Amino acid sequence: MVLQSLKNCLWLPCVLRTPKACFWSTPSGGLIIQSVSNDVYQNLAVEDWIHDHMDLEKQQVLFLWRNSPAVVIGRHQNPWQECNLRLLRQKNIKLARRRSGGGTVYHDLGNINLTFFTTRKKYERMENLKLVVKALKALRPQLDVHVTDRYDILLDRQYKISGTAAKLGRTSAYHHCTLLCNADKFVLSSVLKSPFKGLKSNATPSVPALVKNLFEEDPSLTSEMLLDAIAKEYAVQHQIDHHITLINPADETLLPGISDKTKELQTWEWVYGKTPKFSISTCLNMVYKDSVLDVKVNMDVKHGRIEVCNIDLPEQWLPPVLYSELVKSLTGSKFCPNEITTLVTTLLRLCPQDDELHSRWSLLCENMIRLI
Amino acid sequence: VCIHRVRSCSSIRFIKSKYVCVFDKSALKFSHQQRLFRTSAVSCGQIVQFKLSDIGEGITEVTVKEWYIKEGDSVSQFDSICEVQSDKASVTITSRYDGIIRKLHYSIDDIAFVGKPLVDIEIDASKGVASEEDVVETPPMSHEEHTHQEIKGHKTLATPAVRRLAMENNIKLSEVVGTGKDNRILKEDILNYLAKQTGAILPPSPKAEIVPPQRRAEAVPAAPKDKARKIPVPVSRPIAFAGKDKTEPVTGFQKAMVKTMSAALKIPHFGYSDEIDLTQLVQLREELKPLAEIRGVKLSFMPFFIKAASLGLLQYPILNASLDENCQNVAYKASHNIGVAMDTEQGLIVPNVKNVQVCSVFDIAVELNRLQSLGSAGQLGTNDLTGGTFTLSNIGTIGGTYAKPVILPPEVAIGALGKIQVLPRFNSKGEVFKAQIMNVSWSADHRIIDGATMARFSNLWKSYLENPASMLLDLK
């Protein structure tokens, strides 16, 4: 296996001026590239860049990448429904929304990602997955791996080791899939479980599956070995040299416009704001003094912002003026604990400095914020 | 070169009335318009049904997940129309035509079928379609009014492509003289208008003659025949600026600020500023920084400022008080919960350090570290953001010397700290030395705080910081 830095490519400068042109024009039908970054946003931005700017007519591309801990949701999914956002924040695990469809996955360095770039016409997921299985079997013939008709790869007929998603544009398309080598299954199962109750939405739901790492089946396997085996099989099938070119997703001269794409993927508007409209209908059980209050809360959230908000409090529990100020502040606000905390604490400054009132207000707000 | 005579108003009105009887302006809906255009005698935009093309892999149906356009929007070829999903694949559908969207055949979450119509697009006339398609009654587009101007009660005639060209160049159609049939504004008319504005050289076109209409107040200079052959003198007029105003609702952090500051308006503020010589404190911090680092804590100047403020508040407790709504009672707060203004990505937040009166400088530093990391991660809780009694704002880390901070209700005082500058000062011997100078600007509620109190508090605070050893005497 030869790892060649892209800077050594002689033909690069003359090709860079025409973005839509055949980019790293190797004299063959394929190119294998690997990212040097473990940042999920940077790597997703590379996918966007290749999809938007490369001419895949003459050569197809295989992109290999790994990420530091992150949860990646599909284009039309609801993060509140798919994962435990509070746990993600506590553990500093990133949340990203990709542009392809499909369900939610957990990435860490024990998981490898493969993206197959082709023209729209040559889009063929089954072929790609069969390539992966062939590579795995070439590496370890005793592995019982096969592709299902849901485009999953199963180990021993029952454990999911790979999930698939795809994005189709006007002229180009890509199919990417994961492959579990040695990921942290404990973290995976805890972050992919949402504590949210009473959420109604038409967002694409994920289908939970039993997973297993390839490492558990064969402890001699490493991510590097798997990446290499897959690259080798791709090279054979595309009749190209088996060498992997490294790319740096932060290199603006190599990938003009990449930093804008990276930034866009991190904005709140993309990650949370692209959530299809949903409603929540739940009940807060607040312990106040010696009794338990059942407070029904109903909210409609569109573009990640609270469109309609209803909190069913006992009459006069809060002064009506304050209650209406609360509802008014929440309406239009992002469905985000940070923003709601800021708003409710501000409102507390403006109401009479009555200890009883303050404790009721704090109780209500804390319970509400815990929802999100 | 032909010269077009301007049709009289009455004939245009005649055409208009013919439309009026076919459809009523007030009842105009897009779907109705589609039908009426087909049945009216006048030629109109050709409606094309854009069908959902093959996705591949034998897929026959998809779910519509997001529309990027709405009815009435104009689209160009290759613009994204919608996002559909099928079996883990998200597909961006792009337009094959230039035109205006007339109908969306599906709503969000509907199932769409391959081969069936997805949207109806009214094809642009100027793209080579034989009949001249005029849109007399232009439906309201998502852009401003000047695509659809009235000259003294008459609508300007222009095709959608011409309207778009005018809009992109920020041109009012009412200012362009149309040379087409029925005073229609053609693409050449827009280009000629632009050429006049920018002094650009344009190749002469057969319809270049522009005759000003009689009803116009100011005469547009008629272009004589030979002007097309002469090189026009560049007119130094500003190039049309294509930027657009943007309106956004006030939400989130901004909304919080609006509420707080509107309430602060009720407080009569007075200001008091002074200069602090931090030379000794700078030295002290240099000595203590590594000790704090060993304990895993970043030590800035703020813990000193905060502790000194608390010591001052012990002597002047009215600055740590609150005035009730009716200005009847002053509530003296026992805890010194000193707020620290923090600038985050989303905006201004003010968490506070609780009970500074019983904290050491190191304790305060630890707490500040915690609040700062939570603040930048957007994870501050309600407890950290409520209960403040006095606030300091270290705006000097960004810059500035003197400021006029706004008191955060229900508090009665606030201090803004400028940047530390190295400035020449005289010492007691009359010699010039290098001093580390910082300015502080206090604001206080003049209903219960008077200038003398503020000044004395400031002097005490200043003395603690200028001579840090004196803090030792009063530390509790």
From TrEMBL, chain A:
GO terms for molecular function: lipoyltransferase activity. SUPFAM superfamilies: Class II aaRS and biotin synthetases. GO terms for biological process: protein lipoylation. The keyword Transferase applies. Coiled coil: none annotated. Pfam families: LplA-B_cat. Residues 56-242 form the BPL/LPL catalytic domain. It catalyses: (R)-lipoyl-5'-AMP + L-lysyl-[lipoyl-carrier protein] = N(6)-[(R)-lipoyl]-L-lysyl-[lipoyl-carrier protein] + AMP + 2 H(+); N(6)-[(R)-lipoyl]-L-lysyl-[glycine-cleavage complex H protein] + L-lysyl-[lipoyl-carrier protein] = L-lysyl-[glycine-cleavage complex H protein] + N(6)-[(R)-lipoyl]-L-lysyl-[lipoyl-carrier protein]. GO terms for cellular component: mitochondrion. Keywords: Acyltransferase, Mitochondrion, Transferase, Transit peptide. InterPro entries: aa-tRNA-synth_II/BPL/LPL, BPL_LPL_catalytic, LipoylTrfase_LipoateP_Ligase. Its main location: mitochondrion. Its EC number is 2.3.1.200. It is found in: Mitochondrion. Pathway: Protein modification; protein lipoylation via exogenous pathway; protein N(6)-(lipoyl)lysine from lipoate: step 2/2. It comes from the Eukaryota. PANTHER family: LIPOATE-PROTEIN LIGASE, LIPOYLTRANSFERASE 1, MITOCHONDRIAL. Belongs to the LplA family. Lipoyl amidotransferase that catalyzes the transfer of lipoyl moieties from lipoyl-protein H of the glycine cleavage system (lipoyl-GCSH) to E2 subunits of the pyruvate dehydrogenase complex (PDCE2). Unable to catalyze the transfer of octanoyl from octanoyl-GCSH to PDCE2. In vitro, it is also able to catalyze the transfer of the lipoyl group from lipoyl-AMP to the specific lysine residue of lipoyl domains of lipoate-dependent enzymes but this reaction may not be physiologically relevant. This is Lipoyl amidotransferase LIPT1, mitochondrial. It comes from Rhodinocichla rosea. The gene is Lipt1.
UniProtKB/TrEMBL annotation, chain B:
One of its GO terms (molecular function) is dihydrolipoamide branched chain acyltransferase activity. Residues 157-194 form the Peripheral subunit-binding (PSBD) domain. Keywords: Acetylation, Acyltransferase, Lipoyl, Mitochondrion, Phosphoprotein, Transferase, Transit peptide. Its EC number is 2.3.1.-. It holds the Pfam family E3_binding. It catalyses: N(6)-[(R)-dihydrolipoyl]-L-lysyl-[protein] + 2-methylpropanoyl-CoA = N(6)-[(R)-S(8)-2-methylpropanoyldihydrolipoyl]-L-lysyl-[protein] + CoA. Residues 142-153 have a biased composition (Basic and acidic residues). It is found in: Mitochondrion matrix. It comes from the Eukaryota. It is an enzyme of class 2 (transferase). Residues 130-154 are annotated as: Disordered. SUPFAM superfamilies: CoA-dependent acyltransferases, Peripheral subunit-binding domain of 2-oxo acid dehydrogenase complex, Single hybrid motif. GO terms for cellular component: cytosol; mitochondrial matrix. Transmembrane segments: none annotated. InterPro entries: 2-oxoA_DH_lipoyl-BS, 2-oxoacid_DH_actylTfrase, 2-oxoacid_DH_E2_comp, Biotin_lipoyl, CAT-like_dom_sf, E3-bd_dom_sf, PSBD, Single_hybrid_motif. Residues 47-122 form the Lipoyl-binding domain. Belongs to the 2-oxoacid dehydrogenase family. The branched-chain alpha-keto dehydrogenase complex catalyzes the overall conversion of alpha-keto acids to acyl-CoA and CO(2). It contains multiple copies of three enzymatic components: branched-chain alpha-keto acid decarboxylase (E1), lipoamide acyltransferase (E2) and lipoamide dehydrogenase (E3). Within this complex, the catalytic function of this enzyme is to accept, and to transfer to coenzyme A, acyl groups that are generated by the branched-chain alpha-keto acid decarboxylase component. This is Dihydrolipoamide acetyltransferase component of pyruvate dehydrogenase complex. It comes from Rhodinocichla rosea. The gene is Dbt.
